[in-house]
Design a protein that fits this description.
Length: 217
């Protein structure tokens, strides 16, 4: 190799060594997955928090509105209560992916060893039918003490006072991620419970004056 060619190669190498073109692009390519993970992770976390808020609102709204029905309660009132829950849950597509269980918890008017609480009637909404009531179906406790302490987690049961009722609500929702294929937070089921005393209702039995389809569980 002649000295002239060697000098040219050295010069070319020095020019290449000083050339910084493309470095920013390479650095961006390396950092892009991390940036995207942070962005989508933040969006997914915010969406998950919103879903929790909505499910909690549905539980409180159903229990509160059902407890506000005065004098007597009818299947038409249940339709109205569930319609309100549907509006609250629109943002998270609740009805196809969730389930609401509304139970009327009342004293069973039994005595002795059979005294306790009962589920006088129970209604459900939502297409997540794989979810069943956690504390029993309509009629449980009517003639025995299977709901002696009421409804709720062990040690935190809620019971209705004599002559009245408690609207006990269980809400379950299968979280729908923003990016299903990524599934950043995994498959998560959100569940909330709420209970409100009946205000001024004197007749706790449910009627069906319009012969509506019963939203049974």
């Amino acid at each position: 190799m002649t000295s002239r060619k060697f000098i040219k190669r050295i010069a070319a190498y020095r020019r290449l060594k000083k050339d910084s073109k493309g470095i920013a692009l390479v650095e961006f390519a390396f950092s892009l997955p991390i940036v995207l993970a942070l962005i989508f992770g933040g969006l997914e976390t915010a969406n998950f928090a919103l879903a929790h808020l909505r499910v909690s609102q549905i539980a409180m709204t159903v229990a509160d509105n059902a407890g506000r029905v005065d004098t007597a309660i009818d299947e038409a009132n249940i339709y109205e209560v569930f319609a309100g829950a549907g509006l609250v849950g629109q943002a998270i597509d609740f009805e196809p992916n969730g389930r609401v269980v509304l139970s009327s918890l009342q004293p069973n008017n039994q005595t002795g060893a059979n005294e306790g609480q009962m589920i006088n009637w129970q209604r459900c909404m939502g297409q997540l039918t794989s979810v069943t009531p956690s504390y029993g179906l309509e009629g449980k406790g009517r003639t025995n003490a299977t709901l002696a302490n009421g409804m709720g987690p062990a040690g935190s049961e809620i019971a209705a006072a004599d002559g009245t009722a408690v609207m006990f609500v269980e809400v379950t929702y299968e979280y729908q991620p923003l990016i299903p294929n990524m599934n950043i937070l995994g498959s998560r089921q959100i569940r909330y419970e709420s209970a409100f005393n009946v205000r001024d209702r004197t007749n706790q039995d449910i009627s069906n004056t319009q012969s509506l389809t019963v939203n049974s569980c």
